[in-house]
Amino acid sequence: MHAWLCENPIGVDALQWKELPTPEPGAGQVRLRIEAASLNFPDLLIVQNKYQMKPPLPFVPGSEYAGVVEAVGDGVKHLKPGQRVACLSGTGGFGTHTLAPAALCMPLPDGFPAVDAAAFIMIYATSYHALMDRAQLKAGETVLVLGAAGGVGTAAIQIAKAAGARVIAAASSDDKCALCASLGADATINYTQHGPLGGLRDEIKRLTGGKGPDVVYDPVGGDFAEPAFRSIAWRGRYLVVGFASGPIPSLPLNLALLKGASIVGVFWGDFAKREPQANAAMMQALAGMYAKGQVKPVIDQTLPMADLRKAYAIMGSRSVKGKLVLVN
Ligand SMILES: NC(=O)c1ccc[n+]([C@@H]2O[C@H](COP(=O)([O-])OP(=O)(O)OC[C@H]3O[C@@H](n4cnc5c(N)ncnc54)[C@H](OP(=O)(O)O)[C@@H]3O)[C@@H](O)[C@H]2O)c1
């Protein structure tokens, strides 16, 4: 097997494509032949030693992937060789093969292509948990999605539309806004043209008839958080999803008081660990939505697995719409 090995977590340039011994699965593990692996934000942080989880060295990055079970370890009952699965295990995906924890493998129904499956769990689980569980989104409500053309943002648009909500998608270019409209967003805001000092608030106000969005989905943080929160409707829910722009914003708490609004934290990874049954039910619901065509990952492009460094560079350029996927 071959894999991208991180022996020294000082950045992407230190990763090396190496031949490694093909491992045998231990108890509770399966060996997968990887068909596709997607890039997620933590994949960049983890090779720079900036992610909260610090795997022992050396490790193979690649948090999310899909492939075919080749061998199963002791105690694995629900998977067998030949079965196709998707897995989000934190590491191991950027290679030709990996050992995956069987408990984290989601069997794939027929007709679920590997490229979609490798780009599915993280973004849809996060956005469904955020909108449907944490925010209790209802049909007819309005959702403002920031960073709407990114991975979790595109998933949020699709899930909110499937729930019968009105979606205002905000992104940094006309190109990205056009993608959001093609996914069903009812209105878009290019926030590069409407800066944080008033412009964004005015535009949100205009698009919501002065009422403001019932739910704000924020995976970006930074300068737009406060104007977005200031615009929120009475009883609004502000979903703290991530800080892709870097700075972690602070919000004046009097705004929560004045709007009867909630600031709601979203941490899908811990939800999955702490509430595994609720998470499993959610994943089943999402697989059903995929089968009905209500959700489908937006794939910006696929690249050969050997082009990981190029994929990281594209990801760093902030130009990706949806997801980047590496294939074997
Ligand atoms: N809480 C959770 O459970 C959870 C789960 C998954 C992910 N996350 C977090 O959610 C965030 C987004 O994840 P993602 O997978 O959607 O990432 P992504 O595909 O890279 O999208 C992030 C979006 O953020 C915007 N952005 C603004 N400033 C940026 C900058 N300086 N660099 C890069 N992007 C910037 C970009 O949109 P514009 O160019 O349109 O502004 C981009 O499309 C990350 O912080 C991730 O860690 C949280």
UniProtKB/TrEMBL annotation:
Residues in Enoyl reductase (ER) domain copies: 11-326
A Pfam short name: ADH_N
GO MF annotations in UniProt: oxidoreductase activity; zinc ion binding
InterPro entries registered for this protein in UniProt: ADH-like_C, ADH-like_N, ER, GroES-like_sf, NAD(P)-bd_dom_sf, Quin_OxRdtase/zeta-crystal_CS, Zn-ADH-like_protein
CDD domains given in the database record: QOR1
Stored PANTHER family: QUINONE OXIDOREDUCTASE-LIKE PROTEIN 2 (PTHR43677:SF4), SHORT-CHAIN DEHYDROGENASE/REDUCTASE (PTHR43677)
Name used for this protein in its record: NADPH:quinone oxidoreductase family protein
Species name: Hydrogenophaga borbori
